[in-house]
Design goal:
Number of strands: 5
Order of helices and strands: EEHEEE
Strand content: 35-45%
CATH class: Alpha Beta
Shape: globular
Strand order of the largest sheet: 2-1-5-3-4
Radius of gyration: 12 Å
Distance between the termini: 42 Å
Helix content: 10-25%
Largest sheet: 5 strands, mixed
Number of domains: 1
CATH architecture: Roll
Length: 67
C-alpha cells in the first residue's frame, strides 16, 4: 500500500492505481474539478495515464460559479 497526499490529507492507494481511479473512489463531482500534481494541472484526458506514486502530492480544486 502506498500513501498520497491530497489537499493535506493522506490516502492509501494501491500500487498501479491511476489518478482517474483514485478520483472516482472519492465520489467527487467531476464537473469543474481540476487536479494538480507538483503545481501543474493535469488535463482530465490524461488521468488514465497518470500512475500514482508513493508520497505524491496532489491538489484538487473545485471551480464554482457565482459571485
Amino acid at each position: 500500500m502506498m500513501k498520497v497526499k491530497l489537499n493535506d490529507t493522506l490516502y492509501d492507494v494501491a500500487e498501479g492505481e491511476t489518478l482517474r481511479t483514485f478520483v472516482e473512489k472519492l465520489h467527487i463531482q467531476l464537473q469543474g474539478l481540476a487536479v494538480a500534481i507538483d503545481y501543474e494541472v493535469v488535463p482530465r484526458d490524461k488521468w488514465d495515464e497518470i500512475l500514482l506514486k508513493d508520497n505524491m502530492e496532489l491538489v484538487m480544486i473545485h471551480a464554482v460559479s457565482g459571485g
